[in-house]
């Protein structure tokens, strides 16, 4: 579904990503793991077109979208759940969800998707009239994921979804991620919890200093002695 080759990008003269190549298979979870500042968030933003690629290609569903505007990528079925959740704090839960359906592809069936999200996330239904900014971090993460589903995506980019969450909510978020795959979504996951991410994913990429240093089936990376030493503290 996603094929990235030789991708370089950054902020002005500062290059963050250097010749990144990776692939994401339909219906899979692909994990990006690595230390803070490795370039994971920059990669997510570049895929969505929020940061312009300096070189290389981003092919989504067979079409090169490297120079496409961000809004066309979203309307093509790519949704980003950003780091820090970025919900609209002064709006209600339901208003946040409805904003997820503003892209043209999501207009049809929006009310049905809203009810489906309420079935998936009963807590959001309970708090549909509550201001999003008054909810806990875990509840806001559910809301951010629900908002992305309202856009009728095919590929979901999840950027550090467990950042700042209590352990019980980390477990809940990973249950949701596994359910997304079961429901037929394709997920590209950037995550600090390297062990849990690789245990959940089908394929993994280790990113350091803006380059891919190691990749392979996630179950093999979990058992790799060097990965255990550097990322699991074992």
UniProtKB/TrEMBL annotation:
InterPro entries: AAA+_ATPase, ABC_transporter-like_ATP-bd, ABC_transporter-like_CS, BCAA_Transport_ATP-bd_LivF, P-loop_NTPase
Key words of the record: Amino-acid transport, ATP-binding, Nucleotide-binding, Transport
Domain named ABC transporter: residues: 2-234
Gene Ontology molecular-function annotations: ATP binding
Highest taxon, organism lineage: Bacteria
Pfam families reported for this sequence: ABC_tran
Xref: PANTHER family: HIGH-AFFINITY BRANCHED-CHAIN AMINO ACID TRANSPORT ATP-BINDING PROTEIN LIVF (PTHR43820:SF4)
Family statement: Belongs to the ABC transporter superfamily.
Protein's name according to its UniProt entry: ABC transporter ATP-binding protein
Organism: Mesorhizobium retamae
Lineage of source species: Bacteria, Pseudomonadati, Pseudomonadota, Alphaproteobacteria, Hyphomicrobiales
């Amino acid at each position: 579904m996603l094929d990235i080759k030789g991708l370089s990008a950054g902020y002005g003269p500062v290059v963050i990503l250097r010749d990144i190549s990776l692939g994401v298979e339909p219906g899979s979870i692909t994990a990006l793991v690595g230390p803070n500042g490795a370039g994971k968030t920059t990669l997510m933003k570049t895929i969505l077109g929020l940061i312009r690629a300096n070189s290389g290609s981003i092919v989504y569903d067979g079409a090169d979208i490297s120079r496409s505007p961000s809004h066309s990528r979203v309307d093509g079925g790519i949704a980003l759940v950003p780091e820090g959740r970025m919900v609209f704090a002064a709006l209600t839960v339901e208003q946040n969800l409805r904003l997820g359906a503003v892209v043209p592809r999501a207009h049809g069936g929006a009310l049905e998707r809203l009810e489906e999200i309420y079935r998936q996330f009963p807590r959001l239904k309970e708090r549909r009239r509550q201001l999003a900014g008054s909810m806990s971090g875990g509840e806001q993460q559910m809301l951010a994921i629900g908002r992305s589903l309202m856009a009728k995506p095919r590929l979901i980019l999840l950027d550090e979804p467990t950042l700042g969450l209590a352990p019980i909510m980390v477990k809940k978020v990973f249950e949701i991620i596994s359910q997304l795959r079961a429901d037929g979504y394709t997920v590209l996951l950037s995550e600090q919890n390297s062990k849990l991410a690789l245990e959940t994913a089908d394929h993994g990429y280790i990113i350091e200093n803006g380059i891919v240093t190691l990749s392979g089936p996630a179950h093999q990376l979990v058992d790799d002695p060097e990965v255990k030493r550097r990322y699991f503290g074992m």
